[in-house]
Amino acid sequence: MISLSVTGLTKKYNRKIVLNDVQFGHHSGILGISGANGSGKSTLMKCLAGLLRPNSGSIDWKLNGNLLSPTELKNHIGYAAPYISLYEEFTVLENLEFLSEVSQQHLNETDIQQLLDKTETDSLKDKLYKSLSTGQQQRVKLASSLIRDPDVLFWDEPGSNLDSDGHQLVSRILSEQKEKGCLIFLASNDPDEIALCDDVLALSH
User: Could you report the per-residue pLDDT of 61-75, keeping only the tens digit for each?
Assistant: First the structure.
């Protein structure tokens, strides 16, 4: 079981303080990170996932009580966000196959088919990523975040550019991942998405 403890987390860009003395813990279910645009939701997610280094404070990840190093943590994480893009010149299938190899998951055809089915992207698998609509691209991003079968899932604005079917898809996958014991972080300013969360950390400017 993975758990997180954050103490005194502060992040500045030049002199602008984006996060100031944030502290919380998370050890099961879905934690919503809410707040207006510019409140630091994405910055916090990046800090938690080890993509950004905070100016001060501690972020302690533990697996069964043992501290995880940032390198070890990477093997447990899935991440989807508007600012993380996939390879435009690859088809959907090629993207998933490539990411599977890079993350050393070496998924077989059946595993990848399950990801396509889960995110309802099977009909898109032979299309170039750059030819897809933004909503279709978002579904593929969600699929890519599940390649590792992660213990920790970071979804930043998962419903962006999705239609009502897409929002139901987000809700269903979150429910499935939670059921499996996945620790989930969901950054959003969409009240419907925040309503899916077990706890909410509200950031203010």
Answer: 999 999 999 899 999
Report yes or no: 176 and 117 within 8 Å, Cβ to Cβ. no
Query: With contact defined as beta carbons under 8 Å apart, do 5 and 174 qualify?
Result: no
Q: How far out from the chain centre does Cα 74 lie?
A: 12
Which of 28, 33, 32 lies closest to 44 in space, CA to CA? Answer: 33
Six token digits for residue 23 = 């502290």
Q: How far is CA 18 from CA 42, 185, 205, in A?
A: 10, 19, 8
Q: How does DSSP assign 50-75, residue by residue?
A: TSS--SEEEEEEEETTEEPPHHHHHT
| Mean local confidence (pLDDT), 100-125 | 94
**Stated pTM of the model:** 0.96
Going by DSSP bridges, is the β-strand pair 152-156/183-187 parallel, antiparallel, or unpaired?
parallel
Query: What DSSP element (H or E) covers 154?
Result: strand 152-156
d(CA 199, CA 78): 20
pLDDT tens readout for residues 19-78? 999 999 999 999 999 999 889 999 999 999 999 999 999 999 999 999 999 899 999 999
Separation CA 164–CA 144 (nearest Å): 21
Alpha-carbon gap, residue 165 to 120, rounded angstroms: 10
d(CA 85, CA 145): 11
